[in-house]
Amino acid sequence: MAARPGDLSLFVYHALHDVRDERPVEYIFAYSVLTSRVKPPAGVLDVGGCESFLAPQLALRGYRVTVLDLRPCFNEAFPVRMLVGNVLTVQLEPSSFDAVLAISTVEHVGLPAYGQDIVCRDADVIAAHRIAEWLKPGGLAIITVPYGKRVRPATFERVYNRERLWMLTRPFRECTVVYACGPSWARCDPRRAEREKAVAMLACVK
């Protein structure tokens, strides 16, 4: 059966282009959690969303989507508002979004990757606080980060453990964490995730 624009089936078809990567499980987690808890026409901010399938799919479902990224990537052909800027310095109205997504984003913030000109050891924690600031009371933040075993250079991304992950959750009233472990990217328990290449996926409420 052909998928309709905005259907999860179409989204998954595109997202599963490479099952060796954690991105598909992150997308599916974010999409399913957001659409089950926040309904259109809610306002959604996608931080670092230039390479994501989420923004256009959510816009097609009726969400009012804004993408914040260092690079311009969406034009008037997409029903998405594009903001070019750094999550650390951009000025947005507090309490202005129903949901904020940061899919595989905060681990890069403040590191010399993607042409960033601000280098800061705790920029990921600052970014989490800014995400919480932009959420409406009761709003939903979905954040995913690499966890456990490091496979890429420290100058490119942070890899999280339990203590560092806790620092990302501090600005929020409550957070739920789900782990998935490579290479199959099936859900796994925290102990296994600490030892292997894994991803931590957070759903947090302000």
What's this, in brief?
By secondary structure, this protein is α/β, with parallel strands linked by helices. Helices cover 27% and strands 27% of the residues. The chain has helices at 8-15, 23-37, 54-60, 123-134, 162-169, 190-195, and strands at 43-47, 64-69, 81-84, 97-103, 135-148, 174-181, 186-188, 197-205.
Q: Would you kindly provide a written description of the structure presented here, covering whatever features stand out?
A:
With 206 residues, the chain is of the alpha/beta class. It has one domain: Rossmann fold (3-Layer(aba) Sandwich), CATH 3.40.50. It contains six helices and eight strands. It has helices at 8-15, 23-37, 54-60, 123-134, 162-169, 190-195; strands spanning 43-47, 64-69, 81-84, 97-103, 135-148, 174-181, 186-188, 197-205. Strands 3-2-1-4-5-8-6-7 form an eight-stranded mixed sheet. Strand 6 and strand 7 form a beta hairpin. It is globular and about 45 Å long. Residues 1-7 have low confidence and may be disordered.
